[in-house]
Amino acid sequence: MKVIVKKYILTIFFLCITSLVVVILSGCTGKPIPGDVQAFDPFKALPQVTEYAGEGFILMGMVASFVKSDGFMDLKTNYNHRKTPEHCPQVQYFFYKPGSVTNNENKNENGHWVYCAINVRKPHWIEWRTITTTGPGAESVSRGGMGYNQGMEKFTRKITPDPDLIKQYALFENHTKTSVSPVSLSEIWAAAVKAGVPGNTVANISYNFWSRRISFKKSYNASIRGYKFDWNGKLIH
Fold first, then answer.
1. d(C-alpha 67, C-alpha 65), whole Å
2. Which of 15, 28, 91, 194 is 20 to 30 Å from 67 by CA-CA measure?
3. Phi/psi-derived region of residue 212, left when phi > 0, alpha when psi is between -120 and 50, beta in every other case
4. Is residue 20 part of a domain?
């Protein structure tokens, strides 16, 4: 019996050491989640998320999926049969940096804008891939091991803003003259319940900080209508 227990302990120890070595050799990506993973508050995390985006970026939108009626998110919960991170609760923050001529890689050149998306979801393993274009419509994919995503990851790229985006930015500049914070996720949930949405479910809630509009939709049934609210939580339609 003692021999079996000893072998079991050694096996567990070996697996732990192996996992640690894999993490060290593979490396980690992103940054740790700023807050309680099982009671995540997207608004409370905004200062850390904005700092991660970088200097000069302006928050334009936020989309939170699988939000509970208390306004919190359990990033570790799977709400359907798929176990991949993409089908678990997550928050997407969207930032823009209006064009300015600079040599800083985080800013735009030639009048373009820089788009920055920050995703917050449960930590997970990822597979390193290198995609190489080998010809018209042909690509080769090489795999280079595993890495560990700590939960908060950032993507940036240069864009040419379309007229609608420029129009929304003009709205944002006008709104800055009357700084008003939006209602919280729990308050939007309360307004949705008042409009007839059952409170014993989860929802996808999006905020547009430039046009000051909030969208609410149940996470599961796409056929059920969504709702639009203003910045104060008043139902629009």
1. 6
2. 28
3. left
4. no
Could you give the residue ranges of the DSSP H alpha helices within 55-206? Answer: 163-175, 185-194
Q: Is residue 96 part of a domain?
A: yes
Residue 108 pLDDT class (50, 70, 90 cuts): very low
Region for 35 from its dihedrals, namely left if φ exceeds 0, alpha if ψ lies in -120 to 50, beta otherwise: left
The helix/strand/coil state of 108 is: coil
How many CB atoms lie under 10 A from the CB of residue 122? 19
- Decide if 212 contacts 230 (C-beta within 8 A): yes
Quote the domain boundaries for residue 164: 31-123+150-230
What would the two tokens of residue 15 be? 């697996």
Residue 167 resides in a domain: yes
Per-residue pLDDT band at 29 (split at 50, 70, 90): confident
Beta strand 58-67 with 90-97 is: antiparallel
- According to the model, what pLDDT value does residue 201 have? 84
Number of structural domains (the chain) is 1
CA distance 123 to 32: 8
Encode pLDDT of 135-158 as tens digits: 555 444 444 556 677 778 999 999
Beta bridge partners of 166: none
* Best mean pLDDT range from 147-161, 166-180, 197-211: 197-211
Residue at 139 is within a domain: no
